[in-house]
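hey all, quick one before standup. I had two proteins in the batch that finished overnight and I want to keep them in one place so we stop losing track of which output belongs to which input. First protein below, input sequence then structure tokens straight from the run.
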Amino acid sequence: MQKTGTALVLITLGLIVLGFPVLGLVSAGIIYGFLILLMGIGLIVGGLWEMEENAGLGIAELFLGIIALILGIGCIFNPELFSWAVGFLAWIIGLILVIAGLIGAVLKAGGSRWNGVAGIVIGLLFMAFGKYLAIPAVLGVLIGAWLLIRGIVMLTAREEMSVPEI
């Protein structure tokens, strides 16, 4: 029964977010912003403690903590920053896949150049379509569709029957 309730909540949230995609993005941006903010605070505190033993590591943690703090506050108060970050990360992942694909094609990774070519193609697709994730409404629709599909699958999935051992 709990699974059915969870599925219905996911379906309801999915429909709401599909109806108001930017609203769904706002809540996701606030949640992730709060988590990034906490990470930034943790890095700053850790960096201050680390300064006594290793000044270089302490300074690095302080620097990263300040960046995380700024990004966290930015995501909380500007949900478009969250959307931009998702699009940017998709582009970075695509770039990494292209570079890995080029290396794989040149070195015949896995015994074939096609493994590298596949990495290049997938990387280029990430780079081409990642920019659309930076559009808040598009990212909101994708989040809403994911919630809806997840809820429907959870609602319609059958419980696996376990066979008693003899």
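OK second protein, same deal, sequence then tokens:
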Amino acid sequence: MLEIQPVHRQDADAYWADKIAEIMRDQFGIKPKVNTYSYQTPYPPAYDLIPLPNWYKVPDFTKFSGQDDTSTMEHVNRFIIQCGEAANRDELRVQLFSSSLSRSTFMWFISLRPNSIITWADLEKQFHKYFFSGVHEKKLTDLVRLRQRNDESVESFV
């Protein structure tokens, strides 16, 4: 019986792996090891091949954990500043961003589907969508700046 073989390389690899596993099982009673999970970045693999600028040293990025009062906007802006020259390329921003995450935020990043992030705008949008709280807590400096107007009652002011 003539079998149609897959055209794409990945499909061909999977096809032959299945065939070899079938022969090992049928002929020798050997059960092949089950495929284990292999991590794939949420951005295209080609991004990892893009060279960093000459003499560039990857900074020790300020980490975003989502546990303190740092907003996503503040984190993204700080990240871009810390990237320096590498921030000029979308692909490098995307590639380096995970280095600025910790704890659950890093887990969020590595759980994104492969190739779901193509541009910096994609990543920034997903990051804000997932972690932006929209709540801006007042700080002591905000309270110090408050002033009661002359025509304002105490009840209205408070």
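Flagging for whoever picks this up: Helices lie at 9-28, 72-83, 90-97, 103-110, 120-131, 140-145, 154-157. DSSP finds seven helices and no strands in the chain.
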